[in-house]
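Lab notebook: predicted structure, single chain.

Context: the supervisor wants predicted structures on file for every construct in the current expression panel, including those that have not yet been purified. This is the next one on the list. No modifications to the sequence; it matches the entry in the shared construct table.
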Amino acid sequence: MTAVLVVVAVAALLLAVFMVVHAERQRGRVIRRVDRMTADLGYDHMPSVSPDESVARLATSLERWRASVVDVAYEHRYRAALEAIPLGVVVVDADRNPLFVNSAAAWFREGRHSEAVVAHAIERLITLSLSGENHEETVQLYGPPRRLLHLTAAQIEADGESLGTLVLIDDVTEQARIDAVRRDFITNISHELRTPIGAMSLLAETLVGETDTAVVESLAERLSREADRLAATVDDLLELSRIEHGGDADFEPISLQSVVAGAHDRVRSAAQQRDVEIGVNLPETPLMVHGDRRQLTSAVFNLLDNGVKYSGSSSAVVSIRGRLVDDEIELTVQDSGIGIPRKDLGRVFERFYRVDSGRSRNSGGTGLGLSMVRHIVANHGGRISVESAEGEGTTFTLQLPALPPPDGEEPPDDRSDGDMDHEVNPA
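Prediction complete. Output recorded below exactly as produced.
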């Protein structure tokens, strides 16, 4: 009996030892498994001595991993935001090491002369900023193309500690051009309005107390002309403003034949007074465009009126021709007048620009007609060009997107002028 009890006790002890060993092995496997998970997160490679320690290390690593994931998400968001803005952005740390350069600022690293000038300016601003002096600078690049850049540097700080510098690069070329145009416009319009207003004031003063009927009639006539000139300038300014800010709400399919006919009717009287003949050369098949009839008629009228005014002699001819070239309609207005000097060709479409300061005033022009033509053509998605030589006349060419002809009609052939339907309308 005693032997049986001893055997049972020994068996129980062995079972207990086995269970303890098995539990320890399981415990070790759990610890090692948790430690591997911690190591996979990349934060802690030290072995743990207890499950509690391994779990605690894993929890700490998970918290650090969660914080890093949040930091990465914020970093991606900030980088995407900085990449989206149109300004060039350069960020360096306190040791001048580059941290971020967006695509709008990456071009200055290409190494050409202009880029080297900008890179040098950026380095200079970074040096000033890291020394505690925020600074800004304007850099002129002579191109081509000419560019004007405004650079601003600011130190990045947190809790009183410098973390680096941020440099912003703003291309202000277009803004500078707009400012220059605005200044020129104010100067020009002031001059244009001052001249007739001054003349009207002087004529009105002269009229006061004048008793000679002939003199009064002469002064009154001149006063009326100056008032008409002032009114014409204001009307053209209002029309130009309407054209510049107008949309395509009034666009509709129209034929250029009807546009030319309307413009021809408006210029007929002036052409007759100057003994100038208007030649119209258009195909019978409609040349269709999608546009504003009033605007297009105004554009063609201004070109015809310009040709009539500067024809230079009586019995002159101003011709207008139209044809379809591929998917565009080409309209040319040609005169054989005094022409435009080569140096002035690039500026004839500017507001108030005059090739000769005296000839436009003598002809009654406001200096806004060609500017309106340019804006009208741009509104219709087209292009305008000019060719001229002094004493040989001027040719303006408009190119406008064409609409398909009405159903049942064939598009006009792209033929030479001699093969086109021809009509000369004496004004």
